Amino acid sequence: MNRFDYLRPASVAEAISAGRKPGSAYLAAGTNLLDLMKGGVARPALLIDITRLPGLDGIEVLPNGGMRVGALVRNSDLAYHPVFSKRHPAVAEALLSGASAQLRNAATVAGNLLQRTRCAYFYDTASACNKREPGAGCDARDGENHLHAVLGWSPECIATHPSDFCVPLVALDASVEIEGPTGSRVVPLDSFHRLPGSEPQLETVLSPGELVVALHLPASAAGYAAHSRYLKVRERTSYAFAVVSAAASLRLEGGVVSEARLALGGVALKPWRARAAEQVLAGRACDEAAFAEAAEVALADAKPSGDNAFKIELARRILVRALGLAAAGTPDRMPALPGSVFAQPEGLALHA
Amino acid sequence: MPETAPVHIRQGSSIGQPLTRREALLKVTGRARYAADNHPPGMLYAVVAASSIARGRVASLDVTAAKSHPGVAEVMTPANAPKLAQDPDEKANPFTFRLDLLQNDRVRYANQAIAVVIAETLEAATEGALLLRPTYETEPAHVVFASATPFVPPSVGVGDQPKASRGDVESGLTGAEKRVDATYETAAQYHNAMEPHAIVAQWDGDRLVIDTPSQGMAMAQSRIAGLFGIDQADIHIRSPFLGGGFGSKGLISGPQVLGIMAARLVNRPVKLVLRREQMYGPVGHRAATRQSFRIGAKADGTLTALDHHTVTASSSFDDFFEPSGGVSHTLYATPALSTTYEAVRLDMGTPLFMRAPGEASGSVALEGAIDEMAESCGLDPLEFRLKNYAEVEPLTGKPFSSKALRDCYVQGAKRFGWASRPLAPRSMRDPAGLLVGWGMGTATFPALMFQAEARAELRADGTGTVDIGAHDMGQGAWTALAQIAADGVGLPLDRITFNMGTSDLPNAGIAGGSAHTATAGSAIHNAGASVIAALAALATNDERSPLFGAGNTGVLARDGRLMRRDDESRGESYSDILNRAGRHSVEGKGQAAPNPGTQQSYAMHAHGAVFAEVKVDPTLGQIRVTRLVGAFAAGRVINPRMVESQYYGGMIWGISFALHEQAITDARSGRITNANLAEYHVPVNADVPSVEAILVDEHDPHVNALGIKGVGEIGVTGTAGAIANAVWHATGHRARKTPITLDTLIR
């Protein structure tokens, strides 16, 4: 890897000041960044190690009933946090379905949000990638794109965002607290990641120096705790990115959906909130017909970006399944295989 | 001729004991020194710069930029690479494979070494390699299997004929009442040993010391001696532990030789470790195959003909052809049998031996096709296999030296509960609604023997030493061979010193072909017999010994004593014999080699039966193996714990073969797009819920003196087919392409 300077700032302000410099990068657990550096994909001139910054590792319930999660909270610490996992079981389930135990023990909340796509052409520096090198072209378009995007992609980029965590978060209206050179702001997670458009190198709304300091979940998100699931279909039982995943959270009143929250993972360059499908479900009975209709609406705009049309039908089916699981109720205990199609306890049918 | 007791009746024997690995504590405490753990004083780090094109030549390298990076000591390119004594493309024999050693600027595959950067630190060398920014004269590459032009290879595997037959296949097919015509495809796979190929090389004049993982030190010595024009005896290889080999460390690879060249260039010790992605090219792989079957049977399920045609791929510049047809030669009785091959050449690294080369890919295809025929005949898959049980080897008509496959079927089926399997697919569900399927496959692997030598010494203090340059890839050679050694010299295990893992010990051949325990073990056994004979000669010719004159009836060696064969109460200790003779020690040597007579007379194979249960999500297609039961008969078991582990490992690779492993190659660039352990999937723990291995008794008086058949590879065979057949039974979808992926089950 390239030679770089290493800075361990004592305060957020110092970090931000250093982070404005071109070529700088914030380093947290490094579970993604260091791989990128070893491969020559990322070549920062300055690494700003934020892991010792004070005050970024808290998990708290705010007076307004929402939750604030510090940027440096480890994925596993959040997933097993008694209050958080009770209020946001689908988020915990998504966290535990991701990566491996070792990675989850290291990886941070903000790092999960900011992880880069796993598109092989992004990682292969000999390939053309508009995200890595604007204007270079996209070798994924006519390449191996079995797992690429089916929603929100552009001719310039067909990559996907790989996070599991972000999928239920975006469904539950999470937002991102950012500190920057000009002060702090809060951005809805749904607007935090950008779709590729013609500038796929711009991945988030963060401007130079801006640092994610916390994640917020509104008080309303906890209202779905009784009917919240994350389901992730993958090519092996664990330690694999989603082929497609879905988060489904329902508020039920007498067997009728009063409100639904739906999002898909592995289908686009951002966690994909399916608002129109949520509208389909509002006021409907919890039945497979309603779920199927919602799934149709959720994927209405989907189109294959390559050899991946199967993902569209798969996404519909996963949504239907996730809705069925959510309707059946959040299990009392986290399944042994979180987010897995093999997680169902004996005796619980797959279909609602 | 004095003799040790036949091992199977010996009391106080180490053989057969389920000892844990003797080096286990070293390994779990990090004290086992693997090649890359060595850091001799003054050592530099070498990093390979690898080609990003698959065919062409290197037009330029920015050596200046690399050399000006702080810490970079030297950049080895074709311009300054040490000239070799021998063209690395020269093929002395079919077992010598061409290596890319910076002798020219040609590029023959992606990930080929095009330079080596040598630096004071790994980081500097890594950055130096990036700074080379190569430019190429790129030529169109052919990497797509399906679009290349096939030809008939001159031979397949190691010298096997590309065409074999018995009986009249066409009339067997014509007369058949049932026909299966099916084509199976297997994906290219890459060895992903946890330990990448690594070397620490130190020159002292024309003497060379290397720490490197090797499954065949003597062959590596010979190859290196030829390339550098030095004496084989001046090459000292230390290879005490391998972090997995799976065939990829059988022959010394190009990058390992580059480490030696780098050390020569800078005249300092050099360490070179391949990066994970760099293992996808220069160190071998299992080529993709496309296997077409034409099978005929009578309505009652008796086979009338089996035609197995394999198309596989080799590199553009060398010959290794995955011998997938071999399994059809041995498994099912048929009056007419034919195996044929075609191959294509692709711009990729040369495929090589990968755990059960040929048998693994051939087995998954054959077991699928056989299952299809069972289905077509309306028979239970086990019943069908029993109906076509081969009492003699189908291709040659030879009797088997031993074959307990029927016991494997019976014991495996019983443990699995196969008898309650419904015939029709898609007829079982679990309480959660997941589709459940049961499938089976027959496992087989030849019982091979290579050549080896060993040395044994017994000392007057009652201890002994056994030396052999054997190899432990993790399979347990340190333990199993020591058990054979202890019995061979008639001492308890804790009274012998057992040395292996370095090239200055007697040549143990190669740890491959599942033959290492049989081969090295036989040499050790014979060395033991030889040293006991020498000891016995001292005693039986000495009138002061209670064994005087026992030469005719023979003596037994056990627990550090020799005793009369006809009267075990008459004997004395090794120490007494040696002390009386005024000898500090006595030595013996032993050899092992295949026996041409038994090879001529018998077909020698290990066998097994694997039963698999899978669950498949009916709408989402995700597959999981939930149960595997394998029953294997492989002759004598030296250490049941190690053997069980070998079967587990093989069966887990079977899961990998059936559901996970595939190298995905970009058709334009020829680069493998998933050359990392996150995206090149192998099973993780959650994919391996329950595996059972049953060790079925088998006595083989012919394979070798110890009756060992070998267990290293057979577990892969049978298993992948069993899983694919279980997927069919669960879903009704006959997956003829592995790995079976979920998208194929939801379409």
From TrEMBL, chain A:
One Pfam family hit: CO_deh_flav_C
An MF annotation (GO) of this entry: FAD binding
UniProt keywords, alphabetically: FAD, Flavoprotein
Domain FAD-binding PCMH-type: 1-222
Alphabetized PROSITE patterns for the sequence: FAD_PCMH (PS51387)
InterPro entries, per database record: CO_DH_flav_C (IPR005107), CO_DH_flav_C_dom_sf (IPR036683), Diverse_Substr_Oxidored (IPR051312), FAD-bd_PCMH (IPR016166), FAD-bd_PCMH-like_sf (IPR036318), FAD-bd_PCMH_sub1 (IPR016167), FAD-bd_PCMH_sub2 (IPR016169), Mopterin_DH_FAD-bd (IPR002346)
Domain of life: Bacteria
Cross-referenced PANTHER family: XANTHINE DEHYDROGENASE FAD-BINDING SUBUNIT XDHB-RELATED, XANTHINE DEHYDROGENASE SUBUNIT C-RELATED
Protein name (database record): Xanthine dehydrogenase family protein subunit M
Originating organism: Lichenifustis flavocetrariae
UniProtKB/TrEMBL annotation, chain B:
Coiled coil: none
Gene3D superfamilies per the UniProt record, alphabetical: Aldehyde oxidase/xanthine dehydrogenase, a/b hammerhead, Aldehyde oxidase/xanthine dehydrogenase, molybdopterin binding domain
Aldehyde oxidase/xanthine dehydrogenase a/b hammerhead domain sequence ranges: 29-140
Pfam families with a match to the protein in the record: Ald_Xan_dh_C, MoCoBD_1, MoCoBD_2
MF terms (GO), sorted A to Z: iron ion binding; oxidoreductase activity
Superkingdom to which the source organism belongs: Bacteria
Name recorded for this polypeptide: Xanthine dehydrogenase family protein molybdopterin-binding subunit
Organism field: Lichenifustis flavocetrariae
